[in-house]
Amino acid sequence: MKKLLILLTFLAAGGANAAEVTSATIDKYNQKCAMCHNGNVPGAPKSHDVAAWEQRLATAGSMEALVASAVKGKGAMPPKGMCFDCTNGDFEALIAYMSAAE
Ligand code: HEC
Predict the structure, then answer these.
(1) How far is the CA of 53 from the centre of ligand 1 (A)?
(2) Is the CB of 63 under 6 A from ligand 1?
(3) Which domains does the chain have, with CATH numbers?
(4) Which residues is 77 bridged to in the sheet?
(5) Distances in whole angstroms, Cα of residue 32 to Cα of each of 4, 42, 46
(6) I need a labelling partner for 8 at 20 to 30 A (CA). Which of 1, 61, 80, 97 fits?
(7) Can you give the pLDDT at residue 37?
(8) What mean pLDDT do residues 48-55 have?
(9) What is the pTM of this model?
(10) pLDDT at residue 19 in the model
(11) 58 lines ligand 1 (CB under 6 A)
(12) Alpha-carbon torsion (68, 10, 59, 29), positive or negative
């Protein structure tokens, strides 16, 4: 139940301009993020591992902070995950996609 609440808060936090996951999001994910977030790179939160992403969000404190962290880069995560044409909105959508159950 706690997990569900966190996830709902997470989704609601997007508010009025909540990022929408479109087929373009999934294409970007496959081209730019999947190679590291599909479980091949130790330490990278695995896509669709809801608990791992809840943890990331909790540590960052907000969706904005998590997006900022991805844009800045963190540890073995290069700035913007090397997706230089990704906007902050794209990152929100990518994170929404990656953090949701499959
Ligand atoms: C070269 C491998 C690599 C690529 C490409 C990559 N990531 Fe990451 N990512 C990582 C690793 C490793 C971490 C964990 C970093 C850490 O906690 O030290 C991470 C962490 C993250 C985090 C969590 C940051 C935090 O503050 O906890 C987000 C969000 C993220 N990646 C999003 C993305 C998105 C979106 C893409 C595609 C545009 C992407 N990543 C591409 C390796 C990658």
Answers:
(1) 11
(2) no
(3) 2-99 (1.10.760.10)
(4) 74
(5) 28, 17, 14
(6) 80
(7) 98
(8) 97
(9) 0.88
(10) 80
(11) no
(12) negative
